[in-house]
Structure formats: C-alpha cells, structure tokens
Amino acid sequence: MASHDSSRWIRRFHPRADAEHRLVCFPHAGGSASFFHPLSAGMAPSIEVLAVQYPGRQDRRHEEVLDDITELADHLAEVLLDWTARPLTFFGHSMGATVAFEVARRLERRGVVPVGLFASARRAPSCLRDEAVHRTSDEELIREIAALDGTPPALLSDEELLRLILPAVRGDYKAAETYRYQPGPDVNCPITAVIGDTDPKVTPAEARAWARHTTGEFALRVLPGGHFYLREHLSTVIDAISDHVRATTTRS
C-alpha cells in the first residue's frame, strides 16, 4: 500500500488495479505530472502510468521547490519503493531523464532494477553544457521557455500566471544546469534515448552517450521535431514503450 508521502509525489490519472506493469514518468524543468495525462490515457491497460509531481507546482505550489537533482532523486527513490510490487519502466523528459537515471541508480543499489529507462530529449549525464539560464532575468527565462515551444501561448501572455510558475521553472533550471554526474555504478537496465531531430538542447552524439551509462542494451530513436517532439509523436512513443515492456515480459 502506498504511503501518505507517496501520494504527494505520485499521480495516477488512470488507476489500473490489474495492470501487470508500471511506467513512471518524470517531467521536464518547469513541468508537472499533468504533462503525462495524454500518455497515461493512451497507454495499454496492462501498463499503469505513475506521473511524478515535483514540489512547487500545481497542487504542490505552496511547497518549496527542490532545486537539486540529487535531493529530488533521494526523495523519489524512497517513494518508489512503495511501487515495486510490479515491474517498473522509467520515462523521463528533458531534466526528468536525468532525475529518472539518478533514481534508477539508487533503486538498483537496493536490488530493484527497472525493466527499462527511456531518456527523452536529454543529453547523457556525462555530457556537460555550460548553461546558466536559471541566473537570468524573468524576461530572459520566459523567452527561453517560449523558444522551446512547450508552454501554451495563453499562459505565456498571462503575467499573473507566469509569476506563479516562474519560481518552479527557475528552480528546475537550476537543478538541471548545476547537476554534475558523479562517476560510479551506473545502471544495468536497458536505456532508450529518444530525441527530436531539431532539438537545440541535445545532439544525436550527446544522446548516444547514454550508452556509456548502462551495462544493458542501448537504442537511440530520432523523431521529427524539437524539444517537445513528444506532442506530435505521442503514439509512436507509446508504441515503443509498449513494445519494450512486451519484449521484456516475453523474455522473462
């Protein structure tokens, strides 16, 4: 049974008591659990989607933002121990891919090996870029998120709403930009990197470098689109996850 703490971190938009498998989804910087509602709705009944809700947004907006990926991963590894009765696959988008990787490292050290990790729109942990968007002005931060085309235009033109979400966006950008990969045991689970072919935030070479971080299999999928390619190619991603889960279930 999930703990009260778990209920703060995990959203189940389509609870599936009979699901044989669980997919844990980790949002991008400034994102929230609701980003994965369409993915949850489209997923096969045999896979229940658990969407992570970071503090500082939506129904957790009164909580302090965690601006450190290590701290986020420590919390989430504890929370997800409640959900390991069924096999887990991770899907992380952008910053969420790094969080998912660090959570997987922690769980594997405790004997829980995910069935797979999908790293979406994110460079490998060991690929460092010198970025400092989190230290820019509000106006520059707004321009950054607008350029990535992942925020509804109506929200970007609503100053009151923007002021509410900017602390979470800035905190997440700080977490993503100050993250430094610590060499050590990586993961044993297979990793699939998925990127858009015009994404300014990750190159194919940076995505292929995820192969260095697993002793398991690695695959790279490049789809048409930018940083939020996922919106146009959701069914392709759902099929890829379903196929992966089906293949691992067959092998076991």
From TrEMBL:
A Pfam family: Thioesterase
Using the record's annotation, list all stretches that form the Thioesterase TesA-like domain.
Answer: 24-245
Q: Which Gene3D superfamilies match?
A: alpha/beta hydrolase
UniProt keyword terms in alphabetical order: Hydrolase
Q: Which InterPro entries match?
A: AB_hydrolase_fold, TEII, TesA-like, Thioesterase
Q: Which domain of life is it from?
A: Bacteria
Please report which protein family the annotation says this sequence is part of.
Belongs to the thioesterase family.
The name of this protein is Thioesterase II family protein
